[in-house]
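Researcher: Structure for this, please.
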Amino acid sequence: MHSKNVKLLLAAVAIGFLPFVANAADEKKQLAWDTIDRNAQAIADVGDSIYWFGELGMQEFESSKLLKATLDAAGFKTELGGAGMPTNLWAEWGSGRPRIVIVTEVDALPEGSQTPDVMEHKPVVRGAPGHMEGHNTHGAVATAAAFAVKQVMEKYKLSGSVAISFGPSEETLISRPYIVRAGYFKDADAAIYLHIGYDLATGYGLANYAAISSTFTFHGKTAHAAVDPWDGKDAVDAVELMDIGFAKLREKLHPTYRAHRTITMGGIQPNIIADTGQIWWFVRDANMPDAKETYDKLVNIAKGAALMTQTTYDEHINAAGWPQLGNKALAEVIQKNAEAVGDPEWSNEEQEYAKKFQGALKVKQVGLITKVAPLGSRPQSASSNDSGDVSWVVPAGIFSFPAAVPGVQFHNWQAGVTPVSSIAHKGEVAGAKTLAATIIDLMTSPDVLKQAKAEFDQVTTASPYFAVLPTDAKPPLDLNAAAMAQFRPEMAKSYLHKAPRYN
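Model: Predicted structure, token format:
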């Protein structure tokens, strides 16, 4: 136990503020922390192995196989391929209630390949995907925390279960609505979503934006653009008119909205009138009802574009994620444990490295964070992820752990420099300890779960959850398949070929 924690514990006992049950709870957490410290190398091996796999969403075959093998060996019951997704991994130990679920992901990003520890853009495989958001560290934290909780549950004969949901393709907002729809969270008492960050931190309220991803494909009739253009029906004209139509709508929308698009089919060559055109849209807002209202207007614009060009169109919702709803009661438990664990003790070399990296990127040279962020309602981000749906069907805590250099922005090659460094490894350990201690509290504190549920019921009664995915929607299993087939053979030369085992 940290000397600071020992002093606080002894002081509390001396003045009579700490009953025996608190000592017992502290012993449970210490067992979890000792387990995590003992497995520090295996934790690093999990995160580092996933980094080198560098797999894009829906193609996380090596990552899910390694995680499944690690958790199988640790005694967990694992299921691979649920909710119609081959790389969807669900692992669980124990039975009955309370049932606490860790929620996270391990996918990488296109063109994210980067040589670790090099402060200039140097892909390992040019054009290949890679972990430039550090999702590789998530697998390390989640598995280590769950294993530590299992050790505590076994020794102290705690009732309940701990589960992990590794959802595929978070970066494209795909999997979690399907997993929710399949009923995986129907018996959960609480969920905790974890993500790499710059410090140990939690918060409550709406953490990010709702988002709807949809593709509109217009169908027309081809013709020679010079000889008989009057016989053609230009599908790309429809795409352009849809784009222009939404541009004219923008000033009439809520100030919180976001909408962006890319034209994915724009014709073949200038002298052929295109019979196919396609545009892919993201529509976002601070809440799902407003995002859905804007999306419905976008659909009407598509109808108008088709009418003007005498074309037809297909609408396909690719993904739809609600904003994350952070539960305050759960955040308070996470905060307490984050403060007990504390940020890692960074070495002078790590601090100097971070400052040098920040200087190279021309951001403020503050080094690594050494103090846990205070609890509060964080400003809502305009970014999105697919885990928000979970937080509208079960009380959810939101948690970040310090495995990245402050000022280094994700979704850039720079963020691929440190996810296998000692900074990431120390952050993984701190994150696993905080997460494990939080789950132990939830396992042993029914009043906290009751409070979290009452808060959840109040919010979701005011704004009920509804599914945006069509009932017949199916996950896009071939997403990113071609890219991984292209790059995997060369990427495989860097695989670590490790088989991490917890003990």
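Researcher: Any notable elements?
Model: The mean pLDDT is 94. The first helix runs from residue 3 to 14.
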